[in-house]
Design a protein that fits this description.
Blueprint: E1 2-6, E2 8-9, E3 17-20, E4 28-30, E5 36-40, H1 87-90, E6 102-103, H2 109-116, H3 120-124, E7 133-135
Parallel strand pairs: 2-6
Antiparallel strand pairs: 1-3, 1-5, 4-7
Length: 142
């Protein structure tokens, strides 16, 4: 399950989230725009995660938020006691404590309107298709 959270300071959808199950069967992929936090959980044993990035890894810019922040309220499809996470992920701050939140630099009105209109049910729906979710079969190849 892939999750994105809008962490752009000043965004009308700040703190809202969206999830999508990605699998070989549904052929979906997720593009995470700048200013959005990205998290994922594997739902099957022996899963392989692969993702592309737009720039080389930069440890000094690495940020994150707690995956179980109650203010965000992500509905993960597992019991919290079963979660296995890295030591780093266990110490991440809540959204309200996050320093150096991304300012909106290039707002996309279509994305902002769509995010702002998400209802709780839409954010929790695993079959909800959003503008950053597309079929891997139709995506450009690099």
């Amino acid at each position: 399950m892939d999750v994105v959270v809008d962490i752009r300071e000043g965004s009308p959808s700040f703190g809202k989230w969206l999830s999508q199950e990605l699998s070989p069967e549904n052929g979906m992929q997720l593009w995470v725009p700048a200013g959005f936090a990205h998290g994922f959980a594997t739902l099957e044993p022996n899963s392989v995660i692969s993702y592309k990035v737009t720039a080389p890894y930069s440890p000094q810019h690495d940020r994150g938020i707690a995956w179980n922040d109650p203010a965000i309220g992500i509905r993960w499809p597992f019991d919290e006691r079963d979660m296995v996470s890295s030591d780093k992920d266990k110490t991440l701050p809540r959204l309200t404590d996050l320093q150096a939140i991304f300012p909106i630099q290039h707002s996309n009105p279509r994305i902002d309107r769509r995010c702002a209109s998400w209802s709780r049910a839409e954010r929790a729906s695993s079959d909800r298709h959003w503008c950053v979710i597309s079929s891997a079969r139709s995506a450009p190849r690099s």
